Amino acid sequence: xxxxxxxxxxxxxxxCLLCEKSVDIEHQGKLDLTxxxxxxxxxxxxxxxxxxTSITSHFNPQTSNINQQIxxxxxxxxxxxxxNNLPFATADHFGPLFKSIFPDSKIAKGYGCxxxxxxCILNRxxxxxxxxxxxxxxxSSGFRIATDGRMIKV
Length: 154
Hints:
Mean pLDDT: 81
Strand order of the largest sheet: 1-2-3
Strand content: 5-15%
Oligomer: single chain
Shape: elongated
Number of strands: 5
Order of helices and strands: EEEHHHHHHEE
Number of domains: 2
Number of helices: 6
Helix content: 40-55%
Low-confidence stretches: none
């Protein structure tokens, strides 16, 4: 994974994108590059990259493993809580409920998303990606804020 026109390349070195380091080719040229590619660290990085799963596999039930399906279920329930303005405390009751409703389901058995995990999923994963959309919507249309039982139009 050598990039010919990488900014870190010099006349005597090439930059390995996989290892994220410069490879000196001044001494023996192609042999230096071959030696780097056969080195332990480069091979270990190649094996690690092969073992990594694609992000899209987490969202396709046919190709994902059970842990990925459990994670997807937890994200969907956290999104459901936010979309329907339900309190996060409700999330504590979903795990036992799913286990009793779906006793044969491996996903239900592994589900473990309470209020703390649901709030982390929303605040650290979903909200940062949706914040700009929300701000645009709030700027373009009116909205209401409820305080002490009274509605205030903003």
